């Protein structure tokens, strides 16, 4: 069992609440209110800026040049590729970069991003990646599950492109890289005495992911 699988199993209902949240179900069947999705998109842009900072912190916290390069590549990927893709995607909903940059951070955005940064500052690079993994790996898992589910609405579903983005090969490779990196860090740094603390970090980050979905629903 991989370290991620162990953490996910320990999270139990928290993980199921996240990946099967009403926001996710609404994307699958196309019933999610557009206002909820638009609010989520704007906040996700702000979220990404803080996650780039978290990977910059991972560079600093890394114990080897290889780890530094791996974290630096993800940070550059967020800043140079993912944020551009996000801007292009939001343009389809009539949302401009200026609108996103001027938007105030929702409480759920602040809670989640600051928690991840706090974990990274207090702990080591393994703690930080445990806090990051529900997002990085979870989105890939959600996208793939919805894409493979015959119950997911295809025709006329405005959220099918979001599902396809995270189910697509490019993001699935990012997810697999994150899984492998978490395992490598675990082999180097994890002890059984430390697992409970790591599981607590993972579960809290997972609950904050659910709160991020709920933020979108509450906006509608």
UniProtKB/TrEMBL annotation:
UniProt keywords (A-Z) are: Hydrolase, Thiamine biosynthesis
Q: Which family does it belong to?
A: Belongs to the TenA family.
Family matches, as Gene3D superfamilies: Heme oxygenase-like
Q: Report the protein's function.
A: Catalyzes an amino-pyrimidine hydrolysis reaction at the C5' of the pyrimidine moiety of thiamine compounds, a reaction that is part of a thiamine salvage pathway.
**Pathway info:** Cofactor biosynthesis; thiamine diphosphate biosynthesis
CDD domains (UniProt xref):
TenA_C_ScTHI20-like (cd19367)
**UniProt GO molecular function:** thiaminase activity
SUPFAM superfamilies attached here?
Answer: Heme oxygenase-like (SSF48613)
Superkingdom as given in the UniProt entry: Bacteria
Q: What class of enzyme is it?
A: hydrolase
Q: Where is it found, in Gene Ontology cellular component terms? A: cytosol
For this protein, the Enzyme Commission number is 3.5.99.2
Q: Name one GO biological process term.
A: thiamine diphosphate biosynthetic process
What residue stretches are annotated with the Thiaminase-2/PQQC domain? Answer: 15-218
Taxonomic placement: Bacteria, Pseudomonadati, Pseudomonadota, Alphaproteobacteria, Minwuiales
InterPro entries named in the record: Haem_Oase-like_multi-hlx, Thiaminase-2/PQQC, Thiaminase_II, Thiamine_Salvage_TenA
- Name of the protein this chain belongs to: Aminopyrimidine aminohydrolase
Record keyword Phosphoprotein present: no
Listed under catalytic activity are: thiamine + H2O = 5-(2-hydroxyethyl)-4-methylthiazole + 4-amino-5-hydroxymethyl-2-methylpyrimidine + H(+); 4-amino-5-aminomethyl-2-methylpyrimidine + H2O = 4-amino-5-hydroxymethyl-2-methylpyrimidine + NH4(+)
């Amino acid at each position: 069992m991989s370290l991620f699988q162990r953490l996910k199993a320990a999270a139990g209902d928290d993980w199921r609440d996240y990946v099967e949240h009403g926001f996710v179900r609404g994307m699958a069947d196309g019933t999610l209110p557009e206002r909820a999705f638009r609010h989520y998109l704007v906040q996700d842009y702000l979220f990404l800026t803080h996650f780039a900072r978290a990977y910059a912190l991972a560079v600093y916290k890394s114990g080897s040049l290889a780890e530094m390069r791996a974290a630096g590549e993800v940070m550059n990927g967020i800043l140079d590729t993912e944020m551009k893709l996000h801007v292009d995607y939001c343009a389809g909903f009539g949302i401009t970069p200026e609108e996103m940059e001027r938007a105030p951070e929702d409480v759920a955005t602040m809670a989640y991003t600051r928690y991840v940064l706090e974990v990274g500052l207090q702990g080591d690079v393994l703690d930080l990646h445990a806090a990051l993994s529900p997002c990085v790996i979870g989105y890939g898992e959600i996208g793939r599950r919805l894409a493979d589910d015959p119950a997911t609405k295809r025709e006329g579903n405005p959220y099918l492109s979001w599902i396809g983005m995270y189910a697509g090969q490019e993001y699935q490779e990012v997810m697999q890289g994150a899984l492998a990196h978490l395992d490598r860090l675990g082999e180097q740094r994890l002890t059984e005495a430390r697992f409970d603390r790591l599981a607590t970090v993972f579960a809290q980050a997972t609950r904050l992911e659910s709160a991020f979905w709920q933020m979108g629903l509450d906006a509608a």
